[in-house]
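Notes taken during the Thursday session

The instructor put the following on the board and asked us to keep it in front of us for the whole hour. The protein is Pseudouridine-5'-phosphate glycosidase. We were told not to look anything up and to reason only from what is written here. First, the residues (316 in total):
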Amino acid sequence: MSKTDFEHELLRFSDEVKDALHTGKPVVALESTVIAHGLPYPDNVATARHIEAAVRAEGAIPATIGIENGRFLIGMSDADLERFGATKGIVKTSSRDIPVILAQGGKGATTVASSLVAADLAGIPFFASAGIGGVHRGAEKSMDVSADLIQFTRSRVAVVCAGAKSILDLGLTLEYLETQCVPIISYQSDDFPAFYCRSSGFPSPHRLDDPHVVARAIDMHWKLGNRSSVLITHPIHDSDAIDKDEVESIIREAAIQAEHEGIRGPGATPYLMRAVAKATQGRTVKANMSVLISTAALAGRLACAHTDYLRQQNQA
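Then, after some discussion, the predicted structure tokens were revealed:
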């Protein structure tokens, strides 16, 4: 884990997060795109608070990350959450966009990739997200690969999620992560999950059922000198899951329609996600909330286990 530089010119810590990091309490980083580019205000703020509450319920401290006035916000106060939730037009900021948004001094909503940059700088070893990006379908022609995957190779942060979105080429996503030597651990599951779906149809490289063993595996990865992330997946609750075959059928039809309409690049993902939401009559809204909460809770639990493990190592 990186040592925290509380005086870093690009970081502004909330008092709660600063105290937690200073005293060695477990902290979980969270993205802010869910606030600025998710639900409308005030539902977006309420959702962010539910996610933070899930982290707290497991004994960890949430650190929602954003960009404002030329610095990363490492942890948001209630006022920060309200401001980000109520402000329209906040730029969705991936890792490549960070220097420009910082230089302009404006607001930025962090994605998975940019949140990992900030978490690594801040010395926060855990991050939670409902789902990660990956290799897009047709990437052999479009070269459309999410910046999330690239950032996994650069940030020493454990990423807890419900797998990658079903609209992606999950087989190629797993191949890419294997090539880049990013460990994938499925917690209490044999399969790699697919966001709304409990299984992608692909087996996970590793299954671990004990949070303390997960904590040791993360520590071992970094002790080996690796600068990359560890990906920890956990499937959506069975009661909230959507059938994989149903989702796949919707995606295939929507992808054909998107091609006819000339929708490619950044516009493809929201187009396909809207198609799935419409075809499932809004069941994806419930599913999305389910994975937001469950991944945050698991990240909190694992962060606590990791903190306990490090304390035991220091006392040995």
